[in-house]
Design goal:
YwbE family protein; 4-stranded antiparallel beta barrel; SH3 type barrels; mainly beta
Length: 63
């Protein structure tokens, strides 16, 4: 599942995100969603979330 729709992402879900500093390389970081930061229903680059460890990025994959 991709991370462009807010409805697909739940708090507590395991996801892969791309951090701001990794956008050029596309390196993914895995973690558990603590908070959903994007308010709109859709975002073409992925919904922005904060992981439980405090990292913030856009969701690329939902596991």
């Amino acid at each position: 599942m991709n991370g462009t729709k807010r409805a697909n992402i739940m708090i507590g879900a395991e996801v892969s995100i791309v951090l701001k500093q990794d956008q050029r390389s596309g390196k993914l970081t895995q973690g558990i969603v603590a908070k959903i930061l994007t308010n709109s229903a859709n975002h073409p680059h992925g919904i922005k979330v904060r992981l439980q460890d405090g990292q913030v990025g856009r969701v690329k994959e939902i596991h």
